[in-house]
Amino acid sequence: MHDQSAETVASSAGTAHAAADATRAVVQEFLAARVAGDTERLVELFADKVDWMLADNPSVPWIRPRSTPAECAAQFTELMEHTVPEDMRASVDTVLVDGSDAALFGHLSGTVRTTGKSFEGPFAVRLTVEDGRITRHHLYENSLSISEACTP
């Protein structure tokens, strides 16, 4: 059994706390940029290569593979182009941070512009922040409701 000194344990805890604080700060900036529709800031927040995951959904025009900062930031613009902006609602109920990882849980709803149909449901996002930039963005949402709203 290996004994760690109290100083080593405290140093590790301090490092983990600092990483979590840095992650939380980037997540808050990300949320503020999304709310403001600030795609320039979103581009700055995404890393040069992003592990972007969102379940394939061919009937939803704003859901597609992405990996560059510009592609990732464009998701917001594409979502607004295909939905009624006044009807879009998203609330984040919980943000959990563990080192460089964050999980956000909430609820979203909206109306698809071309069909007039609404969608709604819970969502979860897993973000990873490295060197102050988002390297992972995995979104889990009610894809059935969104797909049905996009189908005429």
Question: Can you put this structure into words, describing what you see?
Answer:
With 152 residues, the chain is an alpha+beta fold. Helices cover 39% and strands 34% of the residues. It has four helices and five strands. Strands 1-5-4-3-2 form a five-stranded mixed sheet. Helix 1 runs antiparallel to helix 2 and helix 2 runs antiparallel to helix 3. The longest helix has 31 residues. The radius of gyration is 18 Å and the shape is elongated. The N and C termini lie far apart (64 Å).
Can you describe this structure in just a few lines?
The chain has 152 residues and is α+β, with helices and mostly antiparallel strands. The chain is built from four helices and five strands.
Keywords:
elongated; 5-stranded mixed beta sheet; about 150 residues; alpha+beta
The number of helical segments is 4
Q: What does the oligomeric state look like here?
A: single chain
The major β-sheet equals: 5 strands, mixed
Spans where pLDDT lies below 50 across 5 or more residues? none
The count of strands amounts to: 5
Structural class: alpha+beta
One letter per element, helices H and strands E, the order comes to HHEHEEEEH
Mean pLDDT, to the nearest integer, reads 91
Radius of gyration: 18 Å
Please estimate the helix content. 25-40%
Spatially, the strands of the biggest sheet line up as 1-5-4-3-2
CA(first)-CA(last) distance: 64 Å
Overall, the morphology is elongated
**What is the beta-strand fraction?**
25-35%
